[in-house]
Amino acid sequence: MRASADARRKEFYAKAADYRAALANSRSFAEHYELWRKTSIPYDIYSNRPSSEEYKSEVIDIYRALTSVEYATSNEMTSTLQESEEAFESGYPWQSKSLEVIAQEVAKVAQALRALAAAGMEGKKIIEFGAGWGNLAVPLAKGFQDVTVVDIDPGFIGRLQRICDREHVRIATIESDFTEVVHKTDEKFDAAIFQASFHHCLEFQLLLRQMRDRLLTERGKIFFFSEPIFDNYRFPWGLRYDGESLWAIMCNKWLELGFDRSFFANLLLETGFFLTRIPEVPGYVGSGWCAEQTRHPIDFAKWVLPVECDATFHPADTFEGRFCRDRSRLPALPPDKSYRLEVVNYGPKKLAFSIRAGAATGAYKLEPGLARIVDVASPSGPVEISSETFCPAKSIRGNPDTRVLGLNIRKVSVVG
């Protein structure tokens, strides 16, 4: 089996080398762009423990084979790769001279601004990680936001300061690796933003913990825009294999990670956040994501559950919260944490339900129309909810809803 796995990996490297040669022979951005769009070279990761050092080592081994260099955060420089000073000052996407590429980048900014406004972040303190060209930071600052940006690239920091001088706006700057920011500021922020930058951080779990404990205010949130988070990805996380990502890895030595949605949702839960979704810009930008601190209750219907748990509930509808099926499941929590659930019986009769977490099972009954709070620890695995059910169409005269519904979970938080 190992021999066949090694053969598949060698085949992946050979195809990647052929693709790199094709890129080297292309003569314009348009040709590059076309190669990006039509290329995908899938591969497999063989480690089955995504939080282990073994798994991380495999990812780095693949990076090393594709780039012929060791990974370091200093590899993430972009300003030094520009064709000319004029192109650098013009900036991306303008240097592409493609209206379609420019439209896509402008749409990303619009998505972020709308999401921040919807979350009540006007007038709040915002920190953007990996601000790069400043395409989001500058509009935020011109919109009278208190903005700090982080970037490892001194060229980008200098360019942003020149823009601020021209535009008469103020943006605080921190030249730093992401995980070193906590050692360079004592400020707390209401919002942290990653726009196509989180996936460049190898120590992403450490970064999330640092942000929770030392960078965010009590109700501070993290926003992820244009980050590669996929449904049913080939592996939990690892180097992406689409054409543009392979170009960035092989030609620019950048780290280009991708994440499976279920892994990402569990990662956030383990580090103290619920994952919620930000609407896409149809035709231009896919869904964004928001991490909301689990210490504060959120509408259960907003929580983007791992896929294996999501299917055990009815899809969210116009009700607050979300209905269980006869058997539903919540993901495991860290050992010292417990769920606090606000549950409701929307049925016409008393509803019996039980909640099992590890070896412990709690049995409950709830009168129609009533709500209650239930605290549930999950020390060794998922939380299993078993519920009596009812069909509104059969139980309530004139109700057209033919679903078989169980307990409704209206709010969820994590305590401990």
Describe the structure.
There is one protein chain. With about 425 residues, this protein is of the alpha/beta class. It has 2 domains: about 55-295, Vaccinia Virus protein VP39 (Rossmann fold), CATH 3.40.50; about 305-415, Jelly Rolls (Sandwich), CATH 2.60.120. It has helices spanning about 1-25, 30-40, 55-65, 85-90, 100-120, 135-140, 155-165, 205-215, 245-250, 260-270, 305-310, 390-395; strands at about 125-130, 145-150, 170-175, 190-195, 215-225, 230, 235-240, 255-260, 275-280, 290-295, 300, 320-325, 325-330, 340-345, 350-355, 360-365, 370-375, 385, 410-415. The strands form 4 sheets. The chain has a 7-stranded mixed beta sheet, sandwiched between helices. Strands 11, 12, 14, 17 and 19 form a 5-stranded antiparallel beta sheet that branches. Strands 13-18-15-16 form a 4-stranded antiparallel beta sheet. The two termini are about 45 Å apart.
